[in-house]
Structures are given as structure tokens and as C-alpha cells.
């Protein structure tokens, strides 16, 4: 009894934290409530009841099903629903006409066969990737409307009236949804995507920094902030798993009208590309961090020798990422970015030079520490070598990619 | 005109290929058609028309909305729909009773406020991760049913009759769906997951092989099969992006009854864990393949020196993965697996030893090729070193993980 109460309490607490964490979610819930209450008015008010009452449940259903978290998703669903309903309605009327011409005995056969064929075809179309991405919901609505209208047409005998009624209620539902989502605290998919990308960039930069610091700092670090440190270090994992989110958001963002700083034909696809190169970058960090937990570490001698330059590479790289994030935020290419990239390239070059001179340092003093060197030589070279080429090769290739793309994107914005 | 025709033709061709590629998708479409046609019977047949006709649209709607590709998904949606409807129905009746007790003026107010509050609360609950994963659809149905029943209750005045009718139609729809999905060529989410995992394992093994071969084979390879080779090499990318699919499938598989070789309480979560370690493995391969395209390659001398052992590490590793795949397929731990793991560990050990002896080989002959070595020494060491520690450290750590898990899973199956 007490356990159940405690469980419920912790559940409520979690829910409360979720609400405090992102108040827009709470606002979204209130918006759904408002929309539903408004729709209910169509049922309460007598004059409207006469006109729409019987099918006002369609309006309620439309609101419940269509109301999504972001504007883009809502608009996308609205268009899908409207197109699906219209198309299915016309087809169903056509089929009904053919059925009524073919005699009483064949009427159910014609209707049944047409339902079977069209439902199968529409279901199949949902497997085709292009349609699945954009019109999945529309295909479902198509099946639903078609089977409802054609089957009910056989009985109710007032097909056109029914179709008109259904359309008008759906239009009412859709317009209420669109007005409420866009006017009351709108949550734009495009803006969410924008923030997701910049937030992920910051996370990447933090992870890269932490990774380098932890690798070269063998003192154990400050214990007090260790948990936070660990959290930062794991930040790149978010980037790795954000593919699906980015793609759906970009898909929804296409449907959104111009809002805030974003124009209608904003190049959303660039965000997806940037996301992809960020994921490449995150894979690089993943490889780096696997060196952190590897059991055979290089000796401190070599580590110290390289730590300054490695840390510089990582800090300059992460500052390039951060600058990119602020550039995307302000949607303007800053001069500082070019400067930082230049600096990063210089530090990478220096590190490469240092690496080339490394064996020279190791081999010369053969008398002094030869035994220790003999044993650890290779593992030293290998293991200190790992973080560097990765810190160089992968992120830099990725940065180059990122930069080309960001420039393309900035140009795209300038054009638009 | 011709262009449009050509486009339509290529679209149809693609769709046809999709169908040929996976005939189960076509079967699924036919199943949907059959289910819908059966439901339509409730409308055609007179006796049923009297009983259910007016609300038989609910049955159609249930079939259209609930019928999913896999059995698990369908059952999950059915349970969601039934629970949501029941819960909302009881609550709506309760609210309606309170409203009817509170006088004519307050009736719409009570109903409106309750709709607003409950719709907001249910929408909010959909943001809570636990509920989103399992009961997202149920929450939507809850909102829908509650608002429909409580609003219509105010007008129609035959609430219990309506609720009973709706429930019975939904039960009819649900039972038709369940019977058809489970009896006619069932597609089990669990089996799909099972095949996905083994297929991904094969892809991983292929990628690993190709990666190693391409790195050490500078002759350019056989041009005829280059495209296929490239395809195999890219196989690991599928593994990286399959997280969401695996998780949803595992979520659906829980709901499925015992089928084929899988018992009811099959440890599906183990599949998710195996998937996760496979992704780790894939990140390792990603790092490896970035060495392939890196512009500064080590000289052939060192490459040749190490190629035999590296190739052996990669082939033994990939054969371990393949053996794991067949083991999962047969659900039995074979003796061959232990043997292969032993072999892999031996080859890794040998490679490590060889690496330790490397600088000894490079340093001794200082007279002969010292200049060439001086220049390339470090880059050689670094670059040939990269594929090895990665081929060692990451996959092996992952293999160990995989093995522990596969053993746990095999034990789980033995227990079940």
C-alpha cells in the first residue's frame, strides 16, 4: 500500500519535473484542451446542432487525431487528411454510381471488390518509402473514408449530403487546429530543428574537450564535478542517435509558413546534411573515447610530450564547432569563424610536425632508458598515436565538410 | 506528356520490385483487404444491420486503424484501444452523472471543464517517456472516446446504450483483426527482430572483412565486383541506424503469444542489448574505414609486414560474428564458437607480439633504407597502427560483451 503510494508519488514528481523542464509541453496540452472545448461548442449551441450536430463527432475526431506538438506536423496531417478524404470521397461516389448501374444483385459485389482492391493498393502504397515519409497518414485516411463512404452509400442513399457534411466538419476541425497551433504560443518544427542542431553542436564541442582533457590528465580530475564531467563526455551519444528526429522535423518544417527568422523556402535539407556530418564527427569522438577506457595506456612521458599540442587541437576544434553553432544561431557567417579555422589548421599542422619528429626523440637516447623504451616503445607510439590521427583525420575531414555545407547554407539564406 | 508517363512507369516498376522483393508485404495488403471486406459484411447483412448497423462504422474504423504489419503491433494497438475506450467510457459516464445532478445551467460547464482538464492531462501523459513507448495510442483513444461520449451524452440521452454499442463494435473489429493477423500468414515482430539481428551480424562480418582486405590490398581489387564490394563495405551503416527499429520491434514482440521457436516470455530485451553492442562494433568499423580513405597511407613495406596477421585477426573476428549469427539462428551455443573465439584471441595475441617487435625490425637496419624509414617511420607506425588497435580493442571488447550476453541469452532460452 505504502509502496504503491510512493510509486505514484515519484511518478507524479517525474511528470511535474517534465513540465517544469519544458513548459511548452504544458502549453501544448492546454492548447489541446482549448481546441476540444471549442469543438464541443458546435454541439452545445442549438443552431449549429441542426446543421452539423449529427456528424460533429467528425470534428472532434479531427481535432483529437490531428493536433500535433509542432505546427509543421499539424499542417502536414491536415493536408494529408483533407487530400485523403477528398480523393476517397470522389472515388467512392464514382464506385457507388457504377454499382447502382449494375443491378441489385451485383451491387454488393461491386462495392466489396472495390473496397478490397483499393484498400489493398493503398496499404501497399504505404510501404513505398517516398509515400511513407510524407503521405502515410493520408493513405490511411483514404482507406477509411473510401470504405466508410462506399459501404454507407449502399445503405443510406444520401451519399452527396453525407460527403458534404463530412467535409464541412473536417474543414471546421482543421481550421480550429491550424488557428490554435499557429496563434497560441506556436511551436515550430523548424525552430526546434534549429535549436536541436545548435545544441548538438555544443554537446559535441563539450565532449571533444572533455575527452582530450581526460586522456591527458591522469591526476583523476576534480571529484566534485565528476558526474557533470561524465555527462558532458557522454554528450556525443545524443548526436549519434538523433538521425530519425532530425529527418522527421525537417520533413515537417517544409510545411510551415514563414515564421520568425525563417522564410518559407528555408533550406531545411541543409540541416539534415549538417546533422549527418555531425554524426560522422560523433563517431570520431566515440573512437577517441574508446581510447580512454582502453587498458593499455601509453606512458606519461610521451603523453606529456604531446599533451600541449593535442589539447590545442581539441580546443581549437571545439571552438570552431562552437563558433559554427553561434553562426547558425545568428544565421550569419562571422569573420571569427575563418580566423578560428585558420588557427585550428595551424595547430593540426604543428601536431603533425611534432609527430614526425617523435621517433627522433625516442630513438636517440638509447643508453639511458633503452630498456623501458624497448618495451613500451611500440605501445607508446601506437596508443598516443591513436587519439591524434583521429582528432586530426576524422573531425577535420568532417569540419571541412561542415564548413562547405555551412557556407552553402549561408549562401542559401542570403539568396532567400 | 511522355516524361510523366515515363515517371509513372518507373514508379510502378519500383513498386513492383518492392513487392517481388518482399512478398509478405503484398500478403499483408491482401489481409487488410480481406479484413475490411469481412467487416463490410456486417453492413450488408440485414439482421446485423438492425443490431449494429448505425455504428458499424466504428468496426470499419477499428480495422483500418488497428491493422498493423506485425502481429505484436496489432495486439499492442488492440489492447491500447480496448483499455483506452473502457477507461474513458466509465469516466465519461461518471462525469455525465455528476453533470446531470448539477442542474441544467451548470451541465455544459461541468462537461466542458472536464473535457478540458482530462484532454490536457491525457495529452501531457503522452510526453512521459514510459507512457509514450507503450500507451501513446491508448492515450489518444482515451481523449477521443471521453470527449465523444461526454459531449454526446449531453444530447443523445441514451448513454449506456451508445457505450455498449461502441464497445461491441470495437470488440468485433478487434477480434477480426487479431484472427486474421495471427491465422493468415502471420508476420511476427519477434521473428523479424530475430532475422534483423542475424542479418546485421552478417553485414558486420562482411564489412569487417572487406575493410581489412581493401586496406591491405593496394592492387585495386577486381573491378568487376567492385560495386558489390563497396556495398558489403557499407553494410555496417545499416547496423548503426537500426536502433529505433530494434527497440520498437522488441516492444511489440513482448505482446506476442508463443510462436514457432519462440516462447511467450522469450528474452527480447537481450536482442536490444546485442543490437547495442553490435552498434559499438559498427562504430569501430566506421573508424577503421575512415583509415581507408585517409590520404596519408603507410608505405607498403610495413603494410606487407603486418598484413598477414591483420587479415587473420579480421577473418577470425568476422567468423566469430558469423558463428554467433548462426548460433542465434539455431538458438544453441555451439562448441565451434568457443573454438573460434580461442582462435581469435590467439591471432590477436600474435599481432600484439608482432607489433611489439616492430620497432626492433625498423631500427636495426639503419644503413640500408634509413632515409626512407626516417621520413615515413612515424606515419607508417601511426597509420598501420590505427587499424590494428581498433581491430583489437573495440571489436574485442565488444565481442567479449556480446559473448557474455549471448551466453546469458542462451541460458535464458534454456531456462524458458
Overview in brief:
The structure is a homodimer of 416-residue chains. With 416 residues, the first copy, chain A, is mainly α.
Cα radius of gyration of chain A in angstroms: 30 Å
Detail the poorly predicted runs of chain A: 47-53, 360-395, 411-416
Question: Shape of chain A, please?
Answer: elongated
Helix content of chain A: over 70%
Beta-strand content estimate of chain A: under 5%
> How many individual helices of chain A?
17
Give the oligomeric state of the chains in this entry, treating copies of one chain as homo and distinct chains as hetero: homodimer
Count of beta strands of chain A: 0
Structural class of chain A: mainly alpha
H/E element order of chain A: HHHHHHHHHHHHHHHHH
The largest inter-chain interface, given as chain pair and residues per side, is:
A-B, 80 and 79 residues
Largest sheet of chain A: none
What's the rounded overall pLDDT mean of chain A? Answer: 70
Span between termini of chain A? 62 Å
